[in-house]
Amino acid sequence: MQISSNVLDLPSFNFYKMKVFNTREEVLTFINDAKKKSKTIGYVPTMGALHQGHASLIKQSISQNSITFVSVFVNPTQFDNASDLDKYPRTLENDIELIKQIDSNIIIFAPTSKELYQGNITSKNYSFDGLEHEMEGKHRAGHFDGVGTVLDLFFTLIKPTIAYFGEKDFQQLQIVKKLVSKYKLGVNIIGCEIFREASGLAMSSRNKRLSPSARKEAAFINKTLLEAKKQFGTKSAIKVEEWVTKQFAKNKQFKLEYVSIANIKTLKPVKRKSKKQQYRIFIAAFIDNIRLIDNIALN
Ligand code: PAF
Q1: Residue range of the domain that includes 262
Q2: Torsional sign, CA 82, 111, 154, 106
Q3: Catalytic pick from 54, 133, 139, 143?
């Protein structure tokens, strides 16, 4: 997706005491110095609107590395829908506050699109050996090329020892592992458990856009996943998917985009269960026109 460079860029926030870099040059100088001192670098890529799920990734990075970098960047090339990009929450001041409360030594990188992409805001084309064609890939054209492009840029610049990703975007996590191994980017990728609200709703930056009643109702996704998990013990994957589809059809507040019970390695839908394979169930659904995704392990 081609986007003009001045759309929705973030302002500069260097007046905070903690390090908030806005340019590639600042990052390069810092990283070169850190590498000379053999520091390990943990990296948490984010699109901002940070929540406790992000905080848990950041804390894990702090516990395992000498330096932690957090990027806050709403990546235009991974949106297939201009209005979704437009409405994506942008809360840099709050994000900096939240990070500061975790640890004021964390380094934040919040570039503009023009700065990060050096004026050429387009995606590269990647092959992730078919992982990109399942689930999200079927519904969000070009999404994973955009994710691959931006992470390639960040990894090349920050040269992290370890990068941390949440399992809520499980397909993304598997694709990032593929990106790193296939394109030899030399980063260890760690997947971290989904952080949930008390209701079971998976934490997401998009939850900020839900009305209080939709936010309450959204717990229905996780409730349905948990019931599906119980049924998966005795029923076929197809039967469980059919049951989930029916539950969503009965709930008038939701529009189900897909439900898929898939092998965690290939992300392909399960035809026949095998005890040797691991499976997860994945859902994407709209409530109040806001797209939410969630998934849980089935075995
Ligand atoms: O998961 C996200 O927030 C984004 O896809 C990521 C990994 C920060 C890339 O823009």
Answers
A1: 205-297
A2: negative
A3: 54
Same domain as 233, residue 161: no
Q: How confident is the model at residue 134 (pLDDT cuts 50, 70, 90)?
A: very high
Same domain, 155 and 31: yes
Pair (160, 32) in one structural domain: yes
> Atom 9 (ligand 1): residue with closest C-alpha?
147
Q: Is the CB of 136 under 6 A from ligand 1?
A: no
Distance CA 123, CA 3 (A): 10
- pLDDT at 117 exceeding the cut of 70: yes
Cα–Cα separations (whole angstroms), residue 162 to 41, 68, 95, 178, 254: 7, 10, 22, 15, 37
Inter-residue contact 215 to 201 (CB < 8 Å): yes
DSSP string, 62-112: HHH-SEEEEEE---GGG-S-HHHHHHS---HHHHHHHHHHH-TTPEEE---
Q: Does the annotation count 54 as an active-site position?
A: yes
Question: 198 in a domain, yes or no?
Answer: no
